[in-house]
Design brief:
Layout lengths: L2 H11 L8 H13 L4 H27 L14 H25 L9 H15 L1 H6 L25 H34 L2 H10 L7 H34 L11 H27 L8 H32 L2 H12 L3 H13 L7 H4 L2 H27 L15 H24 L5 H7 L3 H8 L1
Helix pairs in contact: 3-16, 4-5, 4-9, 4-10, 4-15, 5-7, 5-16, 7-8, 7-9, 9-10, 10-11, 10-15, 11-12, 12-13, 13-15
């Protein structure tokens, strides 16, 4: 093999072939924190600010006028609010998957994307946690969901899925936030050493006096492994609990044992899609092309493809079991999904989650970042509609024909749903300016040592 061919082969084997010096990592990754953010960042922040105003304005109007301003009715008591809650919980899962599970398996492409994925997890849980509060209508009574000592011996109804959601969301948020914060400490210390003014004082506080000594690294490594091992089963258990919100009932279309793995696969699918949606603009705006390479997007695209096939298999299993069971009500429910009043939502779900990801079989598509960005948008849309189909089509057409009814989301519900994306985007934009968006120290660990390369050249 010629020298040129050898060089190309060696370069192709590297995850970050354009990073040649360790000092460049600090300079490039910390640049978004110290340099001007640019017009695009300010425009997106202003857009998110307007969306947050719309979100809280609509929520305030609902509290003033009552839950009747929503489109919720009998029989559809869970509508856009629970749909969006499940969507955001699903988004939250991929961050922990990429960070914890890939860390335990020592995946070589994890370092550049896990920080953004972990931040996405924390902000998505923060967003999801708002929806049970919105859904109860009377916010000032939401504390009834939490067990607390009181003289009247009143306890929440533990049979209620809303209580399960409280435990699932609070547990997952606590572990995810601690895991995220712990991983940032060495990089915040690196940012502290280059910052000045108020920003330096902030970093001094949150870096907890990190000096990078052997003792600190030893304890850091132990704590990180422990939290990774603790967070991994949470990825599986929390979204399983959310799936049991549905599966424990006798509603046609919900009462299925496949719901837990089906929900977990869907959560990973939607979460990886959202990581692609978030990191593509971040890579472009902050000049991080050398750190988020086609190898990272190729790996995420393969994960999307795998989970897409699992989700599509789950869809087909549900339809097959409804037909094979011979139960008329179950058959009618799934026939109604495909050809009933909400046929358009079901077909959007099938096209976005089952057909569009087929393009990821082609390497040329996986290596095209604009194409991946567009596909990730389709995945996000499809996964929101998956939850809409599960919630609405099952509830509006249950057992008794006299109880059937239509549900149409109100303007208030749609404003709150759209505003939740602005709320999520606002926190993510702040994250890109306050914390290193890529793990500096871990990235340096996977880069080839420069001295060893020089010796090989001789």
């Amino acid at each position: 093999m010629s020298t040129v061919a050898k060089d190309r082969t060696a370069r192709g084997a590297l995850t970050h072939p354009d990073i040649t010096r360790l000092d460049d990592v600090n300079r490039d990754v910390l640049k978004p924190l110290t340099g001007p953010p640019g017009k695009a960042w300010w425009m997106m922040l202003a857009l998110c600010g307007a969306g947050i105003g719309m979100f809280f304005g609509a929520w305030g109007w609902q509290m003033y006028r009552g839950i009747g301003v929503s489109g919720l009715n009998a029989p559809v008591g869970w509508g856009v609010y629970i749909t969006t809650f499940v969507f955001w919980v699903g988004i939250a899962h991929s961050g922990t998957l990429i960070s914890a599970i890939l860390f335990l398996f020592r995946a070589p492409w994890r370092q550049s994307i896990y920080r953004a994925a972990e931040a996405m997890t924390v902000f998505a849980v923060m967003t999801a946690g708002l929806f049970p509060l919105i859904h109860v209508g009377r916010l000032w009574h939401a504390y009834w969901l939490i067990p607390y000592p009181n003289s009247r011996f009143l306890w929440p109804n533990f049979k209620s899925p809303l209580v399960w959601d409280v435990f699932a969301v609070t547990t997952y948020f606590t572990v995810s936030a601690v895991f995220f914060y712990l991983g940032t400490i060495p990089d915040v210390a690196a940012a502290r050493d280059r910052a000045g003014g108020l920003r330096k004082k902030l970093y001094q506080v949150i870096s907890l006096g990190w000096q990078g000594t052997d003792r600190q690294w030893h304890h850091f490594g132990k704590a990180y492994i422990f939290l990774a091992a603790l967070a991994t089963p949470l990825v599986l258990s929390v979204h399983s609990v959310v799936s049991w919100d549905f599966a424990m009932s006798i509603v046609p279309g919900w009462h299925a044992t496949i719901f837990a793995p089906y929900f977990v696969a869907g959560a990973i699918f939607s979460g990886v899609g959202m990581v692609i949606t978030l990191t593509v603009p971040m890579r472009k705006f902050f000049g991080l092309e050398a750190y988020l390479t086609t190898k990272h997007y190729d790996a995420m695209a393969k994960l999307c493809l795998l989970t897409s096939m699992i989700v599509l298999y789950a869809y087909m299993s549900e339809f097959f079991m409804a037909w094979y069971s011979g139960e008329e009500i179950e058959r009618t429910a799934f026939w109604n999904r495909l050809f009933g009043d909400y046929w358009w939502a079901t077909w959007i779900m099938l096209v976005c989650n089952g057909m569009v990801p087929i393009m990821l079989w082609f390497k040329r598509v996986r290596h095209s970042i604009p194409a991946l960005f567009v596909i990730s948008i389709f995945i996000n849309i499809g996964m929101w509609f998956e939850r809409f189909v599960i919630v609405v089509t099952s509830l509006h057409h249950e057992y008794e024909p006299f109880a059937w009814g239509m549900y149409r989301p109100s303007v208030i519900e749609m404003m709150i749903m759209v505003g939740s994306f602005a709320w999520f985007g606002f926190w993510f934009l702040l994250f890109t300016r306050l914390l290193p968006p890529i793990a500096i120290q871990e990235l340096k660990e996977v880069l080839p040592p420069p001295m060893r390369k020089q010796k090989e050249a001789h």
